[in-house]
Each structure stands twice: as structure tokens, then as C-alpha cells.
Amino acid sequence: MNNVYREIFKAPGSLKFSAAGLVARMPISMTSIGLVTMLSQIRGQYWLAGAVAATFALSTALLAPQISRLVDRLGQSRVLLPATIISVLSMIGLLLCTRYEAPDWTLFLFALFAGCMPSMSAMVRARWTELYQGSPKLHTAFAFESVVDEISFIIGPIISVSLSVMLFPEAGPLFASVFLLIGVSLFVIQKNTEPVVRPISTNRNKAVLQIRSMRGLVFTLAAIGTIFGTVEVVSVAFSENHGSTVAASVVLSVYAVGSCLAGLVFGTLKLRTPLHRQFLWGIAVTTVTMLPLFFVESIIALSVTVFFAGMSVAPTMIITMGLVEKIVPHSQVTEGMTWAITGLGIGVAFGSAAAGWVVDEFGARMGFGVAIGAGFLALVIVLLGNSALRSAYNDAVISQKNISVS
């Protein structure tokens, strides 16, 4: 590991909370594809599989900011475990309904409540922010956590799909819930690194989404999330059409490997380009790398294509978290980071549902058209909102300089 990464772990307890965070965030990469794999095997309908996965992803996206809002007010240790228990029990209900052929509506109901899953990525980043706010080490810490996110997406899909195919269809989502319960439990017992609960002043006590530049980030990330949801569902269908459903986990892992490697390198860089401009370039690269998906003919070609497409993912998320840390009040930083991840989750939900329908109606290859369209939409949104984002970023930089001088 590069020296810059070793430096951030000199803070007491940092390695422990980051490791617990890795275990606790595994369900994010395991659950959706596990639900798609499970339901496509048992029910044989991609629209249903995609719709249930989308319900779970959308519920997670909408509930996670509310959980994080409570965390900012009450603290991580008081909120995370109760939310996790609700999610785990609901997922067990969903799996039982699937096993015993309950009506379809019960699957959607339990998927809705299973979405009461904390955004552990935001929780871990909040602890890093507590340690290193205002320090260059925070950029490195965010880079490391983006790499950890990608590691979970490298091994998570392989574990989930393999378990569902080799053991029993419900195994993937079941083990995802086990990871969640264990990881969160290990995380919350580490009190020494838990962020301090800060009172929110009355003049700033407003929802994070009332910040215009923050809304622009969330909408852009929703379009990017649509790409992720589409690639996930279409990769399963594409691999099944080519005779190997398990190959979908390999494709998604290669996608994450490309992102992971790029994130490691990006975390060592000390760029002087303003973050808002870096964000624009990151979205532009993401859009361009979507185009070759429409022309892939084999699993190998798909793997190579998504490897290069993935190289823009982690750097873009590192930049995003840097922007959130700048433009959101420190007392609401967990909520702000969660809304950024929520934007992705909303996009994943839409992408899963849309891609599932397109695959059923027009075939797997046409499903990639959803990802390509989402890439162009993301670019349009970031171009339209770039002025507000630039202004908010510049104001934050000036404010921090004034504080440091005083």
C-alpha cells in the first residue's frame, strides 16, 4: 500500500472502523443482484426480478437519508443497530415469501421494509471527516473508502450469485443480511471514533436537498446510478444468454476492478484543478465509455468494455464526496454524503426496472441502450448545474480560508 494510505491509519481505531465498514457494506453489492438471481431462477421473469430489486434499491435510497439525518442528531450508536434489525427481519420475510410462493405483492412489501438499511459508506466517511476535516489526508481517506466500496463490488456479486446458484436461490440475499448484522454490530461498538453530535443552528436547520448545488449532485448521480442498475441486470441476462449465469458476477467484478485500480491511483494525486471541474470531466468520461457496450458480442468483450468503463467510477465518487464535504454544513455531513449515495440508489432502482423491461421485450443487447442514454442524461444535468456547483464550491473555499486566517 502506498505511504499516503498508511498515513491515514495512524489515527487510533481507524483501521478497525474501516474494516467493520467493509463487512457492513457488503449487502449493497450482494442484495440487488442476489434478488435478481433468486427471482429469475424461481419465477423466471426478469421484469419481476428487476422490479423487486428496484423496490429494494429505491426504498434504501429514500430511507437512508432519513436514517442518516437521525444519526446526525442522535449519534451512530443509537440509530444504526435498530435500523439494521428492521432490514434483516424484512429480508428474511421476503425470502420466506419467495420460498413458499406467496403472492407477488408480498415480495414488494418486504423489499420495501428491507430497504431500512443504513448507508454504511456514509457512516465510515463521516468518521474520516471527524478525524481529518481540513487536512489533505481526507482526500486520501475518501479515496481509500471508494476503493473499499469497489472491493465490496468485486467480491460481493461473486459471493451472492455463486451462493444462489450453487446452494439454493435465496442464499445470496440471506448471507447479505448476515454480513449486514455482523458488520454494523462491530461498527457501533467502536465508540471512540464515533463522530460527535453537533447541534444544528436554527439559521442552518434545513434539509440538505434545499442546497441547490447539492440537488444538482444528487440528480447527476441518479443518472449515473441508472447505469449501474442497468449493467447489473443486463449482465445477468447477457451471461444467461451465453450459457453461464455465474459469469455475470465475473463481469460485475471486472467492472469494479477497473474502478478500484483507478481509485487507488487517484487517491495519491494532488490535483490543483477545482473539484467542480474534476466532477464535470469525470461525468464526461463516464458517458463516453458507455458507448462501446452496444456493440459487445461475447462475455469476454463485455468484461473488457466494463473494465475501462469502471475506471471513471471511483474517481468520480471521490470527487463527489469532496464536494459534499465542502458545500454541506459539518453538522449535516452524514446526511449530505448519504444523499449523494441515495442519488445513486434511486438511479439503480430505475435502471434495474427499466433494463428488466427492455430485456424482456427486446433482448439483452438493447438493455445496454438504457445505460448509454443515462450517461448522456448525466452529462446534460452536470452541464446545466455547473454554474451553481462552481459558485457553492468557491464560496466554501473562501469561507474555509477566512476561518483558517482568523
Question: What does this entry look like structurally?
Answer:
- With 406 residues, the chain is mostly helical.
- It has a single domain (11-191, 209-405), classed as Up-down Bundle (Growth Hormone, Chain: A).
- The chain is built from 16 helices and no strands.
- It has helices at residues 3-8, 14-42, 46-74, 76-99, 104-114, 120-132, 137-166, 171-188, 212-241, 247-268, 275-290, 299-310, 313-327, 333-362, 364-384, 386-405.
- α2 runs parallel beside α7 and α11 packs antiparallel against α13 (313-327).
- The longest helix has 30 residues, at 137-166.
- The mean pLDDT is 81.
Condensed summary:
The protein has 16 helices and no strands. It is mainly alpha-helical.
Write the layout of secondary structure elements.
Elements: H1 3-8, H2 14-42, H3 46-74, H4 76-99, H5 104-114, H6 120-132, H7 137-166, H8 171-188, H9 212-241, H10 247-268, H11 275-290, H12 299-310, H13 313-327, H14 333-362, H15 364-384, H16 386-405
Mean model confidence by pLDDT: 81
Task: Report low-confidence residues grouped into runs of 5 or more.
Answer: none
- Shape descriptor: globular
Distance between the termini: 37 Å
- Report on the biggest sheet: none
- Name the CATH superfamily classification: MFS general substrate transporter like domains
Specify the CATH architecture: Up-down Bundle
Briefly, what CATH class? Answer: Mainly Alpha
In total, how many beta strands?
Answer: 0
CATH topology: Growth Hormone, Chain: A
Number of helices: 16
The percent range for helix content is over 70%
The rounded Rg comes to 20 Å
